[in-house]
Write a structure and sequence with these properties.
Elements: E1 7-9, E2 14-15, E3 21-29, E4 32-39, E5 45-52, E6 64-69
Antiparallel strand pairs: 1-3, 2-3, 3-4, 4-5, 5-6
Length: about 80
Amino acid sequence: MALMPRVSRVPGTAVLDGGAKGVAIGFAEGGTRSELIFDQVSPRPLGTREVAVTASGDVPPGTVISADAFEFRIVNGVGLTD
């Protein structure tokens, strides 16, 4: 990912809802930055978030606009959830 144009590591630690902390790799475009959050120790992806990088109306820069955490589990077959 480090070799992709306009993609960079976001300084500091990214925190998702629920307290998961990780390293964010982001791509900024149009006043927002899309981030993919990875575990700080392993290459496991933890989730994504969208962050404002410029002020827009009442939303100041640095505001997390949306976030999603990934959930992984072992299942007995494709398409099964238990």
